[in-house]
Amino acid sequence: MKFSTSAIATTFLLLLPASAAFAQKGDNNWINSGGGDFDLPSNWSTGSVPGSIDTAVFDIGATLGYEVFGTDVNVGELIFGRDDVTLSLQGPVSSLFAGGLTIGGRNTTSALRPGRLRIDLTTETSSFLDTIEVGKTGFASRLELSPSTRIETSFLDIRAASTLRLDIDALSGGFVPMILCKGSASLLGTLEIGPDDGAALPPLGTTVSLIEVLGGFSSTFSTIVTSGEPGRRIDPVFEGSIGFGAADLLVGVVVAEDTTNVPEEITDLGIGAATFAIEATDLNGDGFDEIVIATEAGKLSIYSPTASGGFSGPFDYVLGNSPTDIASGDYDGDGTNDLAISNFGDDDLTILLNPSADPSDLQTAANLAVDTGPSAVLTTDLGTAGSSNFLFADGDDIVVVSKSSGTATGYRSQGGGLFVKSADVQVGEEPGPSAPIDDENKKDPDAPLGVGGRSSGIRGQTSGILSIVQPNPATGGLDVTATVGLSGLPVGVAAADLDGDGAAESIVATDLGTLDIISGTTSFSRSTIPLPAPRTATAITAGRFDSEPGSEIVVGVVDSDGTDPALLVYRPRTSGGLNVIQLDLINEISLDTAASALALGIGETSASFTGLPAQPTLSVGVGAGSGETPEVTLLGLITKDVPDCNKADFNGDGEVSGADLSFILSYWGPCGTVCATDLNDDGTTNSADLGLFLGFWGPCIVP
Fold first, then answer.
1. pTM for the model
2. Exposed, middle or buried by CB within 10 Å (0-12, 13-18, 19+), for 87?
3. Run of H or E residues at 695
4. Is 125 within 8 Å of 99 (Cβ atoms)?
5. Which pLDDT tens digit goes with each residue over 651-678?
6. Among 170, 431, 542, 579, which has the minimal tally of Cβ within 10 Å of its Cβ?
7. Which residues are within 8 A (CB) of 48 and not within 5 positions of it... i.e. 6 or more apart?
8. Could you report the per-residue pLDDT of 573-625, keeping only the tens digit for each?
9. CA 398 to CA 377: how far, in whole Å?
């Protein structure tokens, strides 16, 4: 549906004085860190409310978010710097008019304070913002619209690192888009679509108009993140009505899911000390991964799955001081997986060889001295040129990331657990979390490595970086092919193919509650996904977590005050041929204590004993100072069929009843492109569908 915007634009112009084009704009700064009434003069630096030629600035550096409320805002410009603000305009005749809206556009904006604005208008509020710019200074700024908010603009600019979030609720739907852009749009950042806090989704089949660009989409966001509820999700769809197949409208359609995922706690493994690192790798060749745990006590504990569904072990080995990371690979070329563990306190690696494919009988090789402060160790292929022992030429090689020296150093395998240094590159200050950039831990020997670190600017500010390090098997060298700025300091690094193009993306969890997705093979771009507020990340991993093909992203999180630990599970979804990474937030799993380390592997779940093949399991380690008995928890994510009645429970209240019958009657007759009431998919809602519907009458529980 198309409609004219000339009336609103004309109204906006009429509100401006005739001399506005020649008047000098002036900044009028909001000064009340506790929020308050927009129309109260004492809340403003000039002692008067901003007028139609003034710039209203919200940039006081408040430590907490605040709400500004009112009925009418008519200003020359709205600028939100580092503050986190909710602008709420209510009332039957409320209005919002400005020549421009800028979020994150002041020199005070930083990675820590990127600037965030939530706009909450009534459906009756008239609004026109001539231009909208989010993330102007390159930080992870954010614009969020409440379900009832509708905004018109001439130009919409969502920068690469920033986010636009569109909230929906049970009343969302209809033809009026949440954002109508009369001109052009540059949409390079992340789009989030999901229920407002605590709200339910609209009924099945509802189409919610989200963004309409009258000139057509020239870009379609780098990443789209959706969240739904068990048994139903939001499907973003770009539609075209301007000819040549060009899309000019983005809608969200509420659709039923055929399956859902239910977390299952398998067992707890007592380890006696806080977990510093976990690796899942098959040490005995039975197709199941052993769980390898390095603890604060300088001990390595290995648990081995058994055919009966239990575990043998632990098999314990002595490590050095403060182990930080574990890698696995065939370091001596004998066809079995070995282990390498970095000891931060001793500046060396413990090498454990596995000649008999027996996790209870690993052999300790000579420790490998490395650069000071080893924080990560990765398996790679540095080739065989110059190797002194060709009997073990196919042994896997190692890259060690050293926090104190700021280096990534390559070591070639020489057989028998011996290595020789072959390369050394700088990777920033205090590098740490790292991961090969390959999909589902396939351990491609030539995969580039993502090394997280930090960099200091000329003014002393510190920012996060990801160095892309490429091993060179022909020379044994390492090359830093790119350095990508992050939205915060890296907490953890993982990798998976998120867009199905065959090339893995790096996913970096940061200390500022964001996930940075780094895409590319020769040139690299970054999109930033905010974790659900007020969550911050404690750990991250990626790989297959359920019986469905493809990878999931699993993020350990806590609230900003350290409480409410949980796991967030994101699943990539195909995006219909568009160059967009689409992620669904499919699960939030509560934990007793915050996760310090995560590892996905193949193990045993209840599904393994019902004729299904071996299932992925997640090992969750607990850090120091949790106050709980140290243990590693094993979790499964069991895929279960959603009952067919879910497709007839249109309003999602857990029951097929008279309220749902009204939907059948309302949509009686031929269906359009989306028709949830056409239960037999014959293109018409009729008596056949009514018969199916009545067969589902009663409670309908989605696992």
1. 0.90
2. buried
3. helix 687-695
4. no
5. 999 999 999 999 999 889 998 766 899 9
6. 579
7. 28, 41
8. 876 556 789 999 999 999 988 999 999 988 765 544 444 556 788 889 887 66
9. 7
